[in-house]
Amino acid sequence: METVGKTSSQRARGLERAFDILDLIRRENRAMRPNEIAKLMGAPRSSVYELVHLLLDMEVLENSGGGGQVFLGSRLYFLGRAYNDKIDLYRRIENILDSIVEETCETAQFCKLENNKYTVALMKEGSRPFRISANLGELVPVPSTASGRLLVGHLSDQEIINFLDKDDFLLPNGETISPDTFIAEVRKATLDGHYTFDSIVDTFTHCFAVPVKDIKSVCIATLCLVTPRDDGHRNKEAYLTSLKTAATQLEAHLNTSF
How does pLDDT run across 214-223, given as a tens digit for each residue? Predict the structure, then answer.
């Protein structure tokens, strides 16, 4: 019995490490050599090499280039498509994003937390000739985003500090936001029911975010607009109305949490 338990534990660790490899490649968003994967994970090279070869055989990973690099494989795409097709809620969200784009002509997003990072889960590009886009699934520090001020609003001040990494307060423009300033913005955004700001990532966009709440009134996701800066300032109230109306519609159909 002890041998069986030991074998099961080893398999569980191997499965966990396999997902760690996939998460690392997704987070880095580039092809990587097994040796580099092992180094970044702090894992034994032998076990990483073994798992990489197994994942290649299963088409969960695929070779990329001629230098022994690997990237996410086609099997993940088909698994993702099957999941997306099965989840009616996500189809409903896509329809809501389409409606927001039709009404505003701007890029609409459905965003949420993944562990302690922000990510864009779904997006519909605006209908303008000049389109604004984002990388789906990219993990971004919470304080760098408009949505972040809403997604942690249910936490206490100390819980927010504990939840985020220290490096998260270093913004993409090289500036640092203090925890106290960020928390004050969280409290105001939660009270206002929205947050808007000129993007920290670039100099030409303005970001809008409104909460999508569960039955306990906890913000579990956001609906967002990313607009040209001048248009965002000029149409602020209309854009917020569009997002809040859409969020209310989505909340009425929520049957699960994210």
Answer: 988 999 999 9
pLDDT of residue 257: 45
The two three-digit tokens of residue 218, written as one number: 């906890």
pLDDT at 133: 61
| Burial group, residue 8, by CB count within 10 angstroms (0-12, 13-18, 19+) | exposed
> Which candidate, 136, 163, 128, 161, places its Cα nearest to that of 224?
136
- What pLDDT is attached to residue 9? 66
Distance (Å, whole) CA 233 – CA 17 = 46
Residue 8's pLDDT is 61
